[in-house]
Write a structure and sequence with these properties.
The N and C termini lie far apart (50 Å). Helix content is 51%, strand content 11%. It has a three-stranded antiparallel beta sheet. Strands 1-2 form a two-stranded antiparallel sheet. It is mainly alpha-helical. The chain has helices at residues 16-27, 45-59, 75-82, 86-94, 111-138, 144-147, and strands at residues 32-34, 40-42, 72-73, 101-103, 106-110. Strand 1 and strand 2 form a beta hairpin.
Length: 148
């Protein structure tokens, strides 16, 4: 199956009001889906929560893509998702930084493993930035009173 990461879905300007109304309706309580035969089908809470998250992003003008957590990704798509070159990603894979497997001669990475790597990388970056800010303050290189 082809990866759909790079084909996000957004809404047209003329659909903004419909999305806002739908978001408000779904957020107000239990939601149901009306079938073509007029039969009402309750939407499970977890599915409703997912719909609300999707509508939040669409209402904010952000395009979205939905993939299974276990989606296999190519190194090209995985690199784009992480904001790095395919070559750099391959180096990380070969170094064992991100789990992967091979399909024939091609490397494949599960989306769940990419998201876990991204979460760890983001935590490391935030920690390093906090430490840098602390050291800058201690060294008198940054005056927080005049920065505001």
């Amino acid at each position: 199956m082809a990866t759909q990461v790079l084909e996000p879905i957004g809404i047209a300007e003329n659909e903004e009001e419909q999305v806002r109304t739908l978001r408000l309706s779904m957020a107000s309580g239990e939601a149901v889906l009306m079938g073509p035969d007029g039969q009402r089908h309750p939407i499970p809470n977890d599915v409703r929560a997912l719909f609300l998250r999707v509508l939040d992003f669409l209402q904010a003008g952000k395009a979205i893509a939905i993939l299974p957590y276990t989606q296999e990704m190519t190194t090209q798509d995985a690199g784009k998702l992480l904001g790095m070159s395919r070559q750099y990603l391959v180096r990380l894979l070969d170094a064992g930084e991100i789990p992967h497997h091979k399909v024939g001669t091609h490397r494949r990475i599960y989306l769940k493993d990419l998201l876990e790597f991204k979460k760890k990388r983001d935590r490391k970056r935030a920690t390093a930035l906090s430490e840098l800010a602390r050291l800058s303050l201690e060294a008198g290189l940054y005056d927080c009173k005049t920065a505001l």
